[in-house]
Design a protein that fits this description.
By secondary structure, this protein is of the alpha/beta class. It is 45% helix and 15% strand. A hairpin with a 4-residue loop joins strand 1 and strand 2.
């Protein structure tokens, strides 16, 4: 088991263990804010894939999009299909208003019926001809009072009868109960349905944001001819398991539905040296199952037009690989790696692109140690400081 600052590599079931080559290429490979698809060829333990997942942690976020306006252009648009029909709950507030209106209308109708009954019971007053002043004759005044009394009694009976009939029809408390029932239904349904609608909208917005982040996030795929189960376990235990996937497949047969902005590899490189008795270790270290020509062809097939390919090789093999790639891939960056200042470079870090650079590419240098035991150079610390626990 090898512990880094933010993830751990378990490697007991992998033929190739964590080494300096993998850490070097994982930290050195150039990244751009617009990168969205990355491929790790010969992933082994998943080390390089997880290092790239850590390095691209902020890529594709809203802050990243604001800082790099061109990056979101590669995002597919979110679905613009028809919105789902509202469910029954979303209509309850309106349904409640309708019965409430009907109840109010019923109460108003009862009052109008009562009013019409009262008006019908009151006889229309006829003017009495005035004589001898304004008082009229005595018998006319008596008839007038009698008519008034009769009208009062009729009005009283009609009012009581209509009110009783209204009470009988409505249960005695029609207006108040109808209003209460309407209020109860409104109180019971409207707030709950409003909360349901708000929750639905909140969930939809959260889903949209999640989908947006997923679309804009960087996806890293690791591929290997050997078993990738331990790489999967290492990724699942890391903070970036949702962005990293592994495929067991020879890269020659790998046919994804996309191309990659960055391809990285720490490939097998021994050609004419003695093979190991361990077949899996031979596959991991010797270019038997993945010769350089096959690696070149796979990169040409899988790389986007503006993509880059980063690889780490022994110095001698790096020169041979450049010759094999001539006319198909072009070196755009080189860094020779020394273990100590007095030793010759042992490794070469190479970056390739599809188009030939318009100028000569100089070769940089990186020295790992100062020569003293367990003492490392500032540039190596700066390159790998986000990963090694000791830095």
């Amino acid at each position: 088991m090898f512990r880094f600052k933010r993830f751990t590599i378990c490697q007991d079931r992998c033929p190739m263990k964590v080494g300096t080559d993998g850490v070097l290429i994982g930290a050195w490979a150039g990244l751009r804010p617009g990168d969205r698809q990355i491929l790790d060829i010969g992933t082994g333990t998943g080390l390089i894939a997880l290092m790239l997942a850590q390095r691209t942690e902020g890529f594709g976020t809203e802050d990243d999009a604001a800082a790099h306006p061109a990056a979101p252009a590669i995002r597919p648009p979110l679905s613009s299909g028809p919105q789902p029909e509202p469910d029954r709950h979303s209509l309850r507030t309106d349904d409640t208003a309708v019965p409430g209106n009907r109840s109010a209308a019923c109460a108003t109708g009862a009052a109008n019926d009562t009013g019409r009954a009262v008006q019908a019971a009151i006889p229309t007053e006829q003017p009495f001809p005035a004589a001898d002043g304004a008082t009229g004759r005595p018998e006319e005044r008596i008839v007038d009072r009698t008519a008034d009394d009769a009208a009062d009694r009729t009005t009283d009976r009609a009012t009581r009868g209509t009110a009783d009939e209204t009470a009988d029809r409505t249960g005695g408390q029609a207006p108040r109960d109808t209003a209460n029932e309407t209020a109860d239904r409104t109180t019971d349904r409207a707030p709950r349905d409003t909360a349901d609608e708000t929750a639905d909208r909140t969930a939809d917005n959260a889903a949209d944001r999640t989908a947006d982040r997923a679309i804009r996030g960087v996806r890293i795929t690791g591929i290997d001819i050997g078993d990738v189960s331990q790489a999967c376990e290492n990724a699942a235990a890391s903070p970036w398991g949702d962005r990293v996937e592994f495929v067991r497949c020879p890269v020659q047969a790998f046919r994804p539905d996309r191309r990659y902005d960055l391809i990285v590899s720490n490939p097998p490189f021994f050609v004419d040296s003695l093979t190991s008795p361990d077949a899996e270790r031979t596959t991991a270290r010797h270019a038997v199952k993945l010769p350089f020509e096959a690696l070149r062809d796979a990169v040409v097939r899988l790389l986007t037009e503006e993509g880059r390919f980063a690889v780490v090789l022994p110095s001698d093999e790096a020169a041979r690989f450049e010759r094999i790639c001539r006319g198909a891939l072009f070196a755009s960056r080189r860094t020779a790696v020394r273990t100590t200042p007095r030793k010759a470079p042992k490794r070469m870090l190479l970056e390739f692109v599809r188009q030939a650079p318009d100028r000569e590419i100089p070769t940089g240098e990186l020295t790992i140690g100062t020569g003293a035991h367990e003492t490392y150079t500032p540039e190596y610390r700066a390159l790998t400081g986000d990963f090694y626990l000791k830095f």
